Amino acid sequence: MSLYDIKVNTIRGEAQDLSSWKGDVLLIVNTATKCGFAPQFKGLQKLYEEYKDQGFAVLGFPSNQFAGQEPGAEEEIAQTCELNHGVTFPLFAKIDVNGANAHPLFQHLAKEAPGLLGSKSIKWNFTKFLVDRDGRVLKRFAPTDKPEQIEPHIKQLLQQSAAKR
């Protein structure tokens, strides 16, 4: 199965598949507004603003699986992200990232880019996955990896793909 075959729901409840981002470099993140890592929203937004015109997107997937740090409904999540963190990158409906009910997207991401010692499970909020323009999951970043630490990887992917054109 290709990443682009996976169906998701936007934070507003609209069905969408990831083919909308075919050809873009993606940073896919499981988020939580009440997490200690929530200040990363600002860094993720900064990356999105800096590189969106070059074919880059951040895709945020709220999850309440870690210490109940995303208890609100989608409308509340969207409002908090927008008002408190200035988020304009795409947000999606709240999902599970681990376990029997894990969303197919995170099953795919975890399989393609295992964590430490080959672990498939997502360890915490703000685990990030970098995807190239061909839909290949290249790298998993830990929750402690700040967006600015990921920026060189994004720039490199964007420059490589620009050189091919």
TrEMBL record:
Domain Thioredoxin per the UniProt entry, residue ranges: 1-159
GO biological process: cellular response to oxidative stress
Coiled coil: none
A Pfam match: GSHPx
One Gene Ontology molecular-function label: peroxidase activity
Keywords in alphabetical order: Oxidoreductase, Peroxidase
Catalytic residues, chain numbering: 35
Entry-linked CDD domains: GSH_Peroxidase
Family: Belongs to the glutathione peroxidase family.
Protein name: Glutathione peroxidase
